Amino acid sequence: MTDAEVHRIRNDFPILGSEVNGKPLVYLDSGATSQNPVSVLEAEQEFYEQRNAAVHRGAHTLAVDATDAYEDARTAVARFIGARTDELVWTSNATEGINLVAYAMSNAAAGRGGEAARRFAVGPGDSIVVTEMEHHANLIPWQELAARTGAELSFIPVDDDGALRLEDAASVITGSTRIVAFSHASNVLGTINPVRELVQLAQAVGALTLLDACQSVPHLPVDVKALDVDFLVFSGHKMLGPTGIGALYGRAELLNAMPPFLTGGSMITTVTMQGAEYLPSPNRFEAGTQRISQAVALGAAANYLTETGMQRIEEWETVLGARLVEGLTAIDGIRVLGPAAGLPRIGLAAFDVDGVHAHDVGQFLDDKGIAVRVGHHCAQPLHRRLGLTATTRASTYLYTTTDEVDTFLRAVAGVRPFFGAH
């Protein structure tokens, strides 16, 4: 991709032509929420205008059309990550997907699901493994699972630069480990973790794996079969889709053996006053009225990204990420977290400005029309490990230009002089 092509792409995103505080919007917060192309906006609107009906229920034509649109979207998103259609469960977001697996495991520990579900049960003497760089969404559900079941929560630590201490991983992932949950790419550090190495350590002891792919699926080519993970989660609003929709990938044989998390209508075969039997995946995990229009729009987002080319998007964001790190590193008083310049990272950079709080940095940049994220980015343990309470994060996407990165860097260079920090 080139800047000229990116400028053409930007025409598909109406919000990018707006102004903030009288300045052209420079949107560098796609790591939190991406913007939506017209095709995604139109897909959701078209559903409501032409196909709006309950899915998997009615026999009338409109209901059939709605169901077809809903399942076509599932097929598109499953194909986008290299999964089978029956291996993709719609969720509200990645957080719900992680909670779904965690609660299914505690349901299994309580004896639900019968013999097939026993492999998911955890209890005293078992361990759940995460990493010290995890987003709270991939930490707190496992803390709660440990509290409910008596299992132990362990973590792979990071070093002073925020990199995983892989030499410690083998001693953390042991014969007692039942699941290893970790991020593909850090939302703070930009680090791309060695998925296959961690998966192999888990497989060697018979543990399951869950990959938080919120910062990778939108930005890198992801093939779940090549990664060989058991479960993977991501959110629609980070990959050009709407809010309120995400997905859980799971191997079909695992999903069909897991006891459900939410129960009710649409996920059952037979119900008596004494009990129920559940549908196979993915329907067994989609109780109640589904996220229909959001799923349709996410399918359109996956198609947009596919047409643009995920390899090309990754290469462009690599250029932008390097430009961010090199530019920030050259500014006095700036500490950039994560891999040093020249090392692989996704297209984001979180940094600390000596003598200026991250919230003040964010306000200074916002006054210039530059949108960034400030705070602990839902990763307090990681910030604490690195001796920080908050950072400022700039994150790019396929619609970010090099001019925008340079505008941002010039603005950051003015932060310390403005606040009189020495």
Automatic annotation (TrEMBL):
<dbReference type="InterPro" id="IPR020578">
    <property type="entry name" value="Aminotrans_V_PyrdxlP_BS"/>
</dbReference>
<dbReference type="GO" id="GO:0006534">
    <property type="term" value="P:cysteine metabolic process"/>
</dbReference>
<dbReference type="InterPro" id="IPR015422">
    <property type="entry name" value="PyrdxlP-dep_Trfase_small"/>
</dbReference>
<protein>
    <recommendedName>
        <fullName>Cysteine desulfurase</fullName>
        <ecNumber>2.8.1.7</ecNumber>
    </recommendedName>
</protein>
<dbReference type="GO" id="GO:0031071">
    <property type="term" value="F:cysteine desulfurase activity"/>
</dbReference>
<dbReference type="Pfam" id="PF00266">
    <property type="entry name" value="Aminotran_5"/>
</dbReference>
<dbReference type="InterPro" id="IPR015421">
    <property type="entry name" value="PyrdxlP-dep_Trfase_major"/>
</dbReference>
<keyword id="KW-0808">Transferase</keyword>
<dbReference type="InterPro" id="IPR000192">
    <property type="entry name" value="Aminotrans_V_dom"/>
</dbReference>
<comment type="function">
    <text>Catalyzes the removal of elemental sulfur and selenium atoms from L-cysteine, L-cystine, L-selenocysteine, and L-selenocystine to produce L-alanine.</text>
</comment>
<dbReference type="GO" id="GO:0030170">
    <property type="term" value="F:pyridoxal phosphate binding"/>
</dbReference>
<comment type="similarity">
    <text>Belongs to the class-V pyridoxal-phosphate-dependent aminotransferase family. Csd subfamily.</text>
</comment>
<dbReference type="InterPro" id="IPR010970">
    <property type="entry name" value="Cys_dSase_SufS"/>
</dbReference>
<dbReference type="InterPro" id="IPR015424">
    <property type="entry name" value="PyrdxlP-dep_Trfase"/>
</dbReference>
<feature type="domain" description="Aminotransferase class V">
    <location>
        <begin position="26"/>
        <end position="408"/>
    </location>
</feature>
<keyword id="KW-0663">Pyridoxal phosphate</keyword>
